[in-house]
Design goal:
Distance between the termini: 23 Å
Largest sheet: none
Length: 91
């Protein structure tokens, strides 16, 4: 652990958004092997491609966060907090 590390406070809403995003990323990672195996089977005439494409599209939709025009994504919000904490630490 870094002894110079500082603690920052984030809102519960942002923490939940980030946790949900990480869950989606984990879900995506869990399915990449299945998708890769299916793609390898394509030259052999596998009929699983339709279901795998649907799975990939569903995962893609889960990963995309479309913020409202007056909001930022959780990733940008978290980085803003980190950058602000860094600025405060330099004072």
């Amino acid at each position: 652990m870094n002894p110079t590390a500082k603690t920052v406070t984030i809102s519960r809403e942002l923490a939940e958004n980030i946790a949900n995003t990480l869950f989606r990323l984990e879900r995506f990672a869990d399915h990449t092997e299945t998708i890769a195996v299916t793609i390898k089977e394509l030259p052999r005439g596998s009929c699983l491609i339709d279901s795998q494409v649907e799975m990939l599209l569903d995962l893609h939709e889960d990963m995309i966060q479309i913020p409202t025009p007056d909001a930022e994504s959780s990733a940008y919000a978290l980085w803003s907090i980190i950058e602000e904490a860094d600025k405060e630490a330099q004072k």
